[in-house]
Specification:
The chain is mainly alpha-helical and about 325 residues long. It folds into two domains: about 200 residues, UbiA prenyltransferase (Tetracycline Repressor, domain 2, Orthogonal Bundle); about 55 residues, no CATH class. The chain is globular and about 50 Å long. The N terminus is likely disordered.
């Protein structure tokens, strides 16, 4: 019996479902949504808060558009990196194109379909969000696509990452409402850009040896490990300082949001504590803590921004309509 054919007496339905769900699961993996879903919540909610926004359809639309725009950047990156990823077993299994689950042509078509949908949603919000959204999509394309490949160009890799994966989502959300004071948006944007730059340098240092062996030329490889690590810590310090400024002076969000973030981060980080204690370097120690902090911040911001409005809406619906 040829491999892949069902045995005699087997129900054909599970095989048919595998045919249907296999590409769907591969397409879902191509989006890599879990890697950025919480960070886009942070950038979008902060942008809406800085712009004087409120919970409603406009916020939901810009949030979805931002998810799609960042998703396009991740998807087209996997399309472009598929030939290289196929040379490394671990990367080949993660990349559904390298593993043969999706064809490059279909993956590219799917990526641009996501980009078009994002552009349509941005356009529905007005000229400002549309232009910032288009710039985000353009950077997502130029970041990975040859011959531009901004991610392999020192300095350009950091700037395009900070704008394409953080700054422009904030700007799109801010311009959707555009009612906040300059002090609020400037401090929040500074925080996001600093944290995004820190994250990109962290990733480059994490992959430093492998990238050097592969001949990848980015900012960390150009500056060297020691200088890059120093710059990364400076950016992290700037991010912490601008976050504190946003709370204490710009009054972008209340102090309890930070306290809830810290509490949730501690709870979410507990299962990862053994890995932190066994870390042999600062990079290894920071890595397990990054995602819990990111998720905690997203939850805390949503509780602050959406919680009271949701309660008021429910109270209005359940309240006595008669005077």
């Amino acid at each position: 019996m040829p491999p892949g054919c069902p045995a005699a007496g087997e129900d054909d339905q599970p095989h048919d479902e595998a045919i249907v769900t296999g590409p769907i699961k591969a397409a879902w993996r191509l989006t890599r949504l879990p890697e950025y879903v919480s960070f886009v919540v942070i950038t979008t909610v902060l942008g809406a808060a800085a712009g004087g926004g409120s919970l409603g359809w406009a916020l939901l639309v810009v949030l979805i558009a931002n998810w799609l725009a960042v998703g396009f950047g991740f998807m087209i990156n996997d399309v472009e990196d598929a030939p290289d990823d196929a040379l490394t077993p671990a990367k080949a299994q993660r990349n559904p194109i390298s593993s043969g689950e999706l064809s490059p042509r279909f993956a590219r078509l799917l990526s641009f379909s996501v980009a078009i949908l994002a552009a349509v949603l941005y356009a529905s919000l007005g000229l400002g969000p549309f232009l910032s959204g288009l710039l985000c999509l353009a950077l997502g394309y130029l970041y990975s696509t040859r011959p531009f490949r901004l991610k392999a160009r020192p300095v350009a890799d950091l700037l395009s990452h900070a704008l394409g994966l953080a700054g422009l989502q904030f700007v799109a959300a801010y311009l959707t409402f555009e009612g906040g004071a300059p002090l609020k948006w400037a401090s929040a944007l500074g925080f996001l850009l600093a944290i995004s730059l820190y994250g990109q340098l962290f990733n480059q240092l994490r992959d430093f040896d492998g990238d050097r062996t592969a001949g990848v030329n980015h900012t960390a490889s150009h500056l060297g490990r020691r200088t890059s690590n120093f710059l990364m810590l400076i950016l992290l310090s700037i991010g912490i300082a601008t976050a504190a400024f946003s709370i204490l002076f710009a009054h972008l969000f209340p102090l309890w949001v930070l306290l809830v973030t810290l509490l949730l981060a501690v709870v979410l980080s507990l299962p990862r504590l053994p890995g932190v204690l066994k870390a042999q370097s600062s990079i290894e120690a920071q890595r397990p803590l990054q995602k819990p902090v990111e998720i905690a911040a997203a939850i805390a911001l949503l509780l602050w921004f959406a919680g009271p409005r949701t309660i008021a809406l429910i109270s209005g619906i359940l309240g006595d309509p008669h005077p």
